[in-house]
Write a structure and sequence with these properties.
single chain, 976 residues, alpha+beta, nine-stranded mixed sheet, 48 strands, 20% helix, globular
């Protein structure tokens, strides 16, 4: 018996090619291999399975295969079907035998992730602790947002996740210079590209689900960084209650402008400490900072972890939206930067953070050290290591000269106080490997990458997952099998591929599940996945990968996969946070009140993502948004002071977390106003730049249509230069297909802020009119009646019909949908007044992908203009030419370059008046083509460029006053 067991053990450990066939001949084995290959290839690109051995008896048939079978996403149902398919090709004497399949030294039933195991045998193994989940429980999470009106109770609440957004700019020792780790292709490079998923989408999704996310790179793209420290005069102040502040231990101090290897800013200063109180008078610490300009800034705090540290240190961040409070668990994370959140600050010196010693338990210790506001530029200087220096050559030390968010992990971790043993395990000789060895083991870890590879057709390279199971004898600390990493990888990868195939690309390729010893997969002491989402080298992949809609979709899929995995480890219900709400509107609701309403969005991909409530965030004038108010209904009555602009955004919540915010709507009641105007936001487009593939050319044509980033783009580095398909396989990066400029690689590019009702409304209010606003989805049958308003201002921005990827999902973002056309026809037939502006108001109706003769008739009959060409101007200047007394004789300029807070207008439309009473109002300066058409008889005014793109408030205010004066004249309406 022992001999048989030893033989089986040796077969498992050292391969199965020597296993006896035992009655299953070579022909049958090849047929089994073809059967398994067909099954695997249905799901896995290039799937191939080779039979390496068969051990057969009438009771049991064991089949040993190549590693290709392990790439398959096994589930209980598909494994039963696989057994049946194999049984069908076995000789008759074995068809009643039980079947076992082995691949990668593992019985494939054990490759079914815990999240999908429901069989009685598995439940028995769990009860007997033969299968051990990976859990890493802590009494309290590192950071808790206390000022949030709704907090997740399921989902990822209290979990800690290590997430790495790929490579970054690093110092190349042999070349003695800073460089990117990956090539510049398709308007980006991987070092920046994967961050455009992680920072704006994936991290907020995980945090909205209750997780604390740890990143080894700077997460703030703000170029300014301001420090406030207890060791610096004028930046820190204390007040004492009964418990007095006392000197602490070693802490942060900013004593150098540049840091060399081994220099640790968290060893240059001191900390302060005080005992906690559960009631009565408090002791406080306060930090002040001089903010250089208005903007969003990340806020970090640092402290010292000591025996007896409190687990609920109370921090308050003071920002333009008010005050936000956090409980920080100081029993962990001392001596580094701990992220609290992003906040809007105005310019100038101001209080930014306060800390109190109030706690739910008295007698513990609160420590205070420094506050960091913003991201800043890299300040770690590098030079060639001693082992690589040549005699007689001078070597200078230099920083990257780039914003810190561009740099690799090695440099952030030094600035964040980590020991050199952590951030330079290669002993200062290889910054490249120093960067990718650094990971933080917590509940789980994920390294987000893109891969290389080219296809000469429209086929995608697709998604690959990598994990490693053979470190530390295949076990994590605590006894969990390292195959939990495979669980995580399979679940996340399956979710990504499924969601892509169901929404935008049914032929998206799924690649293998590799069990390989990559550093990111091998080193962490927690289940870890290395994700290679797509090929940054392949045009078919990047047509999707450059689109913000795709980035949101993929990030949500990763979040859902992580949620599934962690829920399975902790035995928690799987509840996904909702999608953002839609169809927002504001409406005057009696004296001093406005009604805000919206509609929930049903997630067709996830049944658990239904909202159970909502949070309404409010901004007054040009301040910041507050901490929100909870409501369980899809509407809210809000009180407003006359003459002030109130803006609102809404999130949906459930037990799994909080959705992303909606677009912003606004309202303002002007006492004794001239009338009521409705601002309708029809600009909801976010998309990739225009892409085309022809017989010999392929690429992105940013000068024709640069797309629309979702709020901002942090990965764009420059326009494409090489379009020749013949260069697809070129190994010289600078002349390969997709090679691009790099003149914007440190810049943040502005996009659709979804806040334009405020921009338009501010000019309307300054012209003396009250206004409400609505999403275009809310008008008409959705509840908002245009007929209640004296005039309508329709925002179209860069709205136009576009596809995603190769276009199989159809068009989105049409300027004037048939439903909107019907609503506007009825409104104008009833003596309405209408102002429309946008870059594609004519192009989309005449040459757009969904254009029809009815579209053109609508433009001519209702809006009184016709198409006179796109690309109407090369310069950004427009001059008023009409003799109509209501228009000022001015020149206007719109934004036609990349800016961090404004979207770029590449193309504008030329218009021609159509019908009686229509006349040109303004022309483009460089060619005298018509930029704006008005019709006195029908009271319409249409511009071929976006109103919100005008350079300044002064220009917008002047033009809006002229437009409303023309449209309404002496007509006025009541306030309600």
């Amino acid at each position: 018996m022992k001999t048989k067991f030893l033989l089986f053990f040796l077969l498992l450990c050292f391969g199965w090619q020597q296993a006896p066939a035992a009655g299953v001949d070579a022909v049958t084995r090849r047929e089994i291999g073809r059967t398994l290959s067909r099954i695997v290839a249905r799901e896995v690109s290039g799937g191939f399975v080779r039979i390496e051995g068969v051990d057969a008896s009438r009771k049991r048939v064991r089949i040993y295969t190549s590693v290709g079978l392990s790439y398959y996403p096994f589930r209980e149902q598909n494994l039963r079907a696989m057994y049946d398919s194999v049984r069908a090709v076995l000789p008759p004497e074995y068809r009643k035998a039980s079947i076992e399949l082995y691949s990668d030294k593992r019985e494939v039933r054990g490759l079914i992730p815990m999240a999908y195991r429901t069989d009685a045998e598995f439940r028995k193994l769990l009860r007997k602790k033969k299968v051990v989940p990976f859990v890493n429980r802590s009494q309290r999470p590192l950071v808790v947002r206390q000022s949030s009106p709704a907090a997740p109770t399921q989902g990822l609440s209290g979990r800690h996740i290590a997430l790495w957004q790929s490579h970054g700019r690093y110092f190349d020792q042999p070349a003695n210079r800073w460089k990117w780790q990956r090539s510049r292709l398709w308007m980006t490079c991987e070092d920046l590209y994967t961050q455009s998923y992680v920072l704006p989408y994936l991290v907020p999704m995980l945090e909205n689900a209750g997780a604390c996310v740890m990143l080894p790179r700077e997460r703030d793209v703000q170029k300014y960084e301001v420090l406030a420290d207890n060791d610096a005069a004028g930046q820190y102040a204390e007040t004492d209650g009964p418990e007095k502040w006392q000197p602490g231990g070693v802490g942060f101090a900013h004593t150098r402008q540049v840091y060399r290897t081994g220099e640790n800013p968290f060893r240059d200063g001191t900390t302060r400490r005080v005992r906690t109180v559960a009631g009565g008078a408090e002791s406080r610490a306060a930090w002040r900072a001089s903010i250089p300009e208005r903007g969003e800034y990340a806020v970090y705090v640092s402290y010292e972890t000591v025996p007896g540290s409190t687990d609920d240190a109370q921090y308050t961040v003071h920002h333009l939206g008010g005050e936000s409070t956090f409980a920080v668990n100081q029993t962990m994370g001392g001596g580094t930067w701990i992220y609290l959140g992003h906040f809007l600050f105005g310019p100038g010196e101001q209080p930014v953070v306060t800390l109190t010693n109030r706690s739910r338990q008295a007698g513990r210790i609160v420590t205070a050290d420094a506050v960091k506001v913003g991201g800043g530029y890299g300040n770690v200087a590098r030079s060639v290591s001693d082992s690589l220096r040549r005699p007689g050559v001078e070597y200078a030390e230099e920083t990257s000269g780039y914003p810190r968010f561009c740099e690799g992990a090695r440099y952030w971790l030094q600035w964040a106080g980590f020991d050199p043993k952590v951030y330079t395990p290669k002993e200062n000789a290889d910054d490249y490997k120093d960067d990718y060895i650094l990971r933080i083991p917590v509940d789980m870890a994920l390294a987000f990458h893109s891969d290389a590879g080219v296809r000469l057709n429209d086929e995608t390279i697709g998604t690959l997952g990598i994990f490693y199971t053979r470190e530390n004898k295949g076990r994590f600390e605590g006894g969990a099998d390292r195959y939990r990493s495979r669980d995580l990888t399979d679940i996340v990868m399956t979710q990504i591929v499924s969601d892509i195939r169901r929404t935008c690309e049914p032929e998206w390729n799924r690649r293998g599940l590799w069990n390989r010893a990559y550093y990111e997969a091998r080193v962490p002491g927690a289940p870890t996945m290395l994700l290679e989402l797509l090929s940054h080298q392949n045009f078919a992949d990047m047509r999707y990968g450059s689109d913000p809609r795709f980035k949101f979709l993929v990030s949500r899929a990763i979040y859902k996969g992580i949620l599934q995995y962690i829920s399975s480890q902790y035995g928690l219900p799987y509840v996904v946070q909702p999608l953002p709400v839609e169809a927002l509107s504001t409406h005057f609701a009696g004296e001093g009140k406005v009604a805000v309403s919206w509609s929930p969005v049903i997630d067709s991909l996830e049944v658990t993502a239904a909202p159970t409530g909502y949070v309404v965030y409010t901004r007054i004038d040009d301040g910041g948004f507050d901490n929100g108010r909870y409501t369980d209904k899809p509407y809210l009555l809000s009180e407003q002071e006359p003459g002030r602009i109130y803006s609102y955004k809404v999130t949906a919540v459930n037990e799994g977390g909080e959705s992303f915010p909606s677009e912003v709507v606004a309202a303002c009641r002007i006492p004794g106003g001239k009338g009521n105007v409705l601002v309708v936001n029809g600009f909801d487009r976010i998309s990739a730049p225009l892409s085309m593939r022809r017989d010999s050319l392929a690429g992105f044509y940013t000068e024709l249509d640069g797309g629309v980033p979702d709020k901002q783009d942090i990965s764009f580095i420059g326009g494409q230069q090489v379009f020749d398909l013949a260069m697809a396989g070129c190994e010289v990066d600078s002349i390969a297909l997709g090679a691009c400029n790099c003149d914007y690689e440190t810049e943040v590019i502005g996009g659709n802020t979804f806040d334009y009702p405020y921009v338009h409304g501010r000019s309307i209010a300054r012209a003396g009119y009250s206004f409400c606003s609505a999403s275009v989805r809310a008008v008409g049958d959705r509840g908002v009646s245009l007929e209640e308003y004296s005039a309508v201002d329709l925002i179209l921005g860069k709205q136009r019909s576009v596809t995603i990827g190769r276009g199989v999902a159809g068009y989105a973002f049409k300027t004037f949908s048939p439903e909107l056309q019907d609503v506007l026809r009825r409104y104008m037939a009833g003596d309405g007044a209408l102002f429309v502006s946008g870059s594609y108001v004519a192009t989309d109706l005449w040459t757009g992908g969904e254009a029809t003769p009815a579209d053109r008739a609508f433009a001519e009959e209702v809006l009184h203009y016709t198409y006179d060409g796109d690309q109407a101007a090369d310069r950004n200047r427009v001059r008023v030419v009409t003799s109509h007394a209501g228009f000022s004789r001015d020149e206007y300029r719109y934004v036609d370059d990349f800016r961090p807070d404004r979207y770029r207008v590449e193309r504008v439309d030329a218009l021609r008046p159509a019908g009686g009473g229509a006349f040109p109002v303004m022309r483009y300066v460089d060619n005298n083509r018509c930029a704006g058409v008005a019709c006195a008889d029908s009271r319409t005014f249409v511009m071929g460029f976006p109103f919100e793109a005008l350079e300044s408030d002064v220009q917008r205010d002047r033009l809006m006053a002229d437009i409303l004066g023309f449209l309404l004249g002496g007509k006025s309406g009541g306030d309600d």
